[in-house]
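In the design runs reported in the main text, the only information available to the sequence generator was the tokenized backbone. The following block is the verbatim input for one such run; it is reproduced so that readers can re-run the procedure and compare outputs position by position.
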């Protein structure tokens, strides 16, 4: 898959950027409330650990060069060190891969190929040198297996020029589309985020299904790139969900802070990504 131009699954940078329901807000079961509260109080958001629940991501390509296409390879191993080859398909894919620069100015949401021995690979081209995070979002096969997001560091060599986090604003422009964000991201509390898509000033009412939804939203926390991945309310073909212009999500931030939101949407056969900088609201419960 080529991620440097206009294509079916388009890579993204924040200036003109172009899933798996793994928003992990705390869920409190009823029977052992105090014990579960204590457990959840120490739980980490997704993407911060290279190993979790016996599974580990091993990056076989720890460094690549900026501006050059190169294969990115990795493997997921189980608690015996054996490569995992069986996965549960979620939103049409066995694994969703996020590549993000530490300054959150470069973002990719891609889908690598799985080899017969458990090796994942995909050609990537990253435009800027610096430190990146590789986030693998997957669910192992097997009864009772839960979704995981594991993270590893990737070094991209070349002439490094630091960039500030883009300023917060309610709209994002990408390839002639304007996406407007309404709603607040609130720590510890589910809240609604509504994103409306327009093209040349006219609402887009014929968004196309992409990975089983009209939109996919990834939130990354500035500073450590803690990961939140949510999907919209409703789905194509359910009889009630309209194909635009508005896509509605329910999400909760793991903490106060600054986040970068990346919305994937598909229209006219092309997947694009709109990016926003968001400060959490002060209305946490």
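Verbatim output:
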């Amino acid at each position: 898959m080529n991620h440097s131009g206009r294509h079916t699954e388009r890579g993204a940078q924040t200036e003109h950027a172009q899933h798996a329901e793994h928003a992990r807000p705390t869920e409190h079961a009823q029977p052992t409330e105090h014990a579960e509260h204590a457990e959840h109080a120490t739980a980490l958001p997704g993407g911060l650990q290279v190993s979790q629940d016996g599974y580990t991501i091993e990056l076989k390509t720890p460094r690549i060069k900026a501006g050059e296409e190169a294969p990115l390879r990795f493997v997921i191993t189980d608690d015996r060190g054996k490569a995992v080859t069986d996965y549960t398909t979620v939103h049409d894919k066995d694994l969703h891969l996020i590549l993000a620069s530490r300054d959150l100015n470069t973002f990719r949401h891609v889908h690598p190929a799985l080899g017969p021995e458990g090796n994942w690979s995909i050609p990537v081209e990253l435009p800027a040198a610096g430190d990146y995070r590789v986030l693998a979002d997957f669910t192992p096969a097997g009864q009772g297996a839960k979704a995981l997001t594991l993270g590893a560091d990737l070094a991209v060599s070349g002439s490094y020029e630091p960039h500030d986090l883009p300023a917060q604003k309610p709209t994002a422009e990408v390839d002639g589309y304007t996406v407007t964000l309404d709603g607040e991201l609130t720590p510890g509390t589910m809240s609604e985020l509504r994103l409306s898509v327009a093209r040349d000033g006219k609402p887009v009412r014929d968004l196309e299904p992409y990975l089983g939804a009209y939109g996919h939203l990834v939130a990354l926390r500035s500073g450590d790139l803690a990961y939140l991945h949510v999907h919209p309310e409703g789905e194509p073909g359910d009889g009630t969900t309209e194909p635009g212009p508005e896509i509605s999500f329910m999400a909760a931030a793991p903490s106060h802070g600054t986040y970068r939101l990346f919305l994937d949407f598909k229209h006219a056969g092309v997947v694009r990504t709109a990016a926003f900088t968001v400060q959490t609201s002060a209305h946490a419960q």
